[in-house]
Design brief:
nine-stranded mixed β-sheet, about 220 residues, Rossmann fold, about 25% strand, alpha/beta, about 30% helix
């Protein structure tokens, strides 16, 4: 018997090295690896969380590689994403400048109703910041996105843990789902909690049973 009522498919996008994999590792395993290898292709994680009204939701998260080499692979994951965490590094202005390119990618290849949350990573490195909060908020407003600054390492200096980004995105998707339940929304699966699915849950969007795994070239 499943404990969750809904499954949301989400993806992490942004330049290589901005900390997407660290966000996923912190959220799913509550760990931080300062020397995390660059993602090759796509990595996957999932976790069940409760939104504000206590509805349990299974969040499936696809961490896409930021390198141009893997664009043809990662674009295919946009098509069925209910939500997107678009990440940039607040200490790296180039990653911020490339937000425009990433928004175009997501909106060209993803569903029209996909929720995008802009995320400024490495918020603990305040002494190395080169992108101001005000600049990020302006870009977020330009594209109709909300904005949050997080750290996968620590929550000192008032920065939020990266978990907050996943929670906020899940709540935004859920709110949108409740307001438009008459239409079939891409990336959202309804689950019958009383049904026994056996060893394989047909609502899973990951290609295997591992909670966290690197996937190079398959969907």
């Amino acid at each position: 018997m499943t404990t969750h009522k809904l499954v949301f498919k989400t993806i992490l996008v942004g330049d290589s090295g901005v900390g997407k994999s660290s966000m996923l590792l912190r959220f799913t395993d509550n760990k931080f690896n300062p020397s995390h290898d660059l993602t090759i292709g796509v990595e996957f994680g999932s976790i069940v969380i409760n939104v504000e009204d206590k509805t349990p939701i299974k969040l499936t998260i696809w961490d896409t590689a930021g390198q141009e080499t893997f664009k043809s692979i990662t674009r295919s994951y946009y098509r069925s994403a209910a939500g997107v965490l678009l990440c940039f590094d607040i200490t790296n202005r180039k990653s911020f400048a490339n937000i425009h390119t990433w928004v175009h990618e997501v909106r060209e290849y993803g569903p029209t109703n996909s929720i995008i949350l802009l995320v400024g990573t490495k918020a603990d490195l305040i002494n190395h910041r080169v992108v101001s909060t005000e600049e990020a908020l302006k870009v977020a407003e330009e594209y109709g996105m909300n904005y949050i600054e997080v750290s996968s390492k620590t929550n000192v200096y008032g920065s939020k843990f990266s978990n907050e980004a996943f929670i906020q995105l899940t709540q935004e998707i859920y709110n949108n789902f409740k307001n438009d339940m008459k239409n079939n929304q891409v990336g959202i699966t309804l689950v019958d909690p009383n049904r026994h699915y056996g060893s394989i849950d047909p609502t899973r969007t990951d290609p295997d049973k591992l909670k966290y795994k690197n996937i190079c070239c398959g969907i």
